[in-house]
Every structure is written in structure tokens, then in C-alpha cells.
Amino acid sequence: MRILISNDDGVWAEGINVLAEVLSDIGDIYIVAPDRNRSGASNSLTLDTPLRLHTHQEKRVSVQGTPTDCVHLALNALLDFKPDLVIAGINHGANLGDDVLYSGTVAAATEGHFLDVPSMAISLVGKTHFDTAARVAKEVIERMMNSPVPDQRLLNINVPDCEYDALKGWQITRLGARHRAEAMIQDTDPRGHEIYWLGPPGPCQDAGPGTDFYAVEHQYVSITPLQVDLTAHNSMQAVEQWLQK
Length: 245
Prior knowledge:
The protein is an alpha/beta fold. It has a single domain (2-177, 204-243), classed as Stationary-phase Survival Protein Sure Homolog, Chain: A, CATH 3.40.1210.10. The chain contains 6 helices and 13 strands. The chain has helices at residues 14-23, 67-78, 104-114, 130-146, 212-217, 236-243, and strands spanning 2-6, 28-34, 53-57, 60-63, 85-92, 119-125, 154-160, 169-172, 177-178, 185-188, 194-197, 204-206, 220-226. Strands 3-4-2-1-5-6-7-13-8 form a 9-stranded mixed beta sheet, with helices on both faces. The protein has a two-stranded antiparallel sheet with strand order 9-12. Strand 6 (119-125), helix 4 and strand 7 (154-160) form a beta-alpha-beta unit. It is globular and about 60 Å long.
């Protein structure tokens, strides 16, 4: 296999390094990732400045841009072939529930999906057992090699931060939800200017059985198939009737 790896934690992040090392057993690995941490970049593209890149090794390139920039650039310019898979991660921390709307890691996988390459995002719900998440990724990919993902869905995978043997299994889940984020944190910089920090994410709101939150909390790998069509199909008729009133 030829596998393109990207992330939002940066080209030298521990997660991407562990993932690349483990997957090198089953394929040729090409890394195109941001030159620094771009967490929370979502699906943003850089439109007002050119993308600058640096080749660190033959198959490792950093880009002065977003995770979406990285995958878009790799698939449309840098690679002279279509890879068999785009995998984003291993993210340093969870991408559960509402997180997927903001996540640069999920966005990188989404861009691969947009450009017609089977894609997945994988996150470690913590910052210790990257080897566990990499082993899970390898097993998912080996399954994909034998049988493609049904309906060509994009996969969002979250792995509990524990030893591999401590995992209780795998669950196919839906996205849960959080309460609204906590208040912004107001502060002052050394020059006396007013600044604000984003507040911590809100606690879980929809985290019952069947959700990604629940699976990870109970030490299961959560695998959520995602779709990029944001149309609320079930509401179309109701909205049409509302407009006719």
C-alpha cells in the first residue's frame, strides 16, 4: 500500500511518528503535515498567501499551512500517484462528538475523502499510549485491504489511552455531544493589552450507550462512520411548509 499520513499536531509530533513507524510494516509511507501545531484549524484552506514547504526527508514534507492544505497539496501536486489511503493522526487527544467540527485531524481525513481516497482519522484519548492507537490503525487498515469500508464512509476512530491488552473491544458509534464551552478567559499581555483565551470544552451532554463518548469511557475503541453531506434531509419538508405560511 501507499499511504499518505497527515495530522494537525505538526510534522514531528509523537503521534504521527509512531503511526508512520508502525504502518511502515504494511506500506510505503508519505508524510505531508503542518510545520507546527494547527489544532482546531477545521477544514480551513489558505487562500490569501502561497503555501511554503520544506522537505525534511525523501518522504516527509512540512507545509506552512493547515491540515487541509497539506492533504490538498499532496494529492494535487506533490504526489505523482493516487495513494491507497489517507490517514490523519495519531491526534494528541480526543476527537469525540462536537470536536469533529473543529478538528484539523478530522479535516485532513475529510479532504482525502473529498478527493476520492479512502480516509480515516485516528485520535488517542490521552497522550501516552500512542503504540496502542497505532496498532488499532494497522488492524483497521489490514481489514480495509481485505474488504473496503461499506458505503465508502470516512472513519473517525478514538482509542482509549491504555495498553493494547486492556482494550475491551471495538464499538461502532455515533457522535455524542457536549454542553456549550465554558466562558472565555480574559487576561492582559505584558504590554497591558486585553487578550482572551478560549475556554475549556464543555462537559458531556449526550454521552449514553451508543455514543463515542460512552465507548471510550468504557475502554472500547470507538469507530464512527462520518458523512460530509450536512443537509438536514428530515427537515426539508417542514422548512418548505414554513416558507409557504
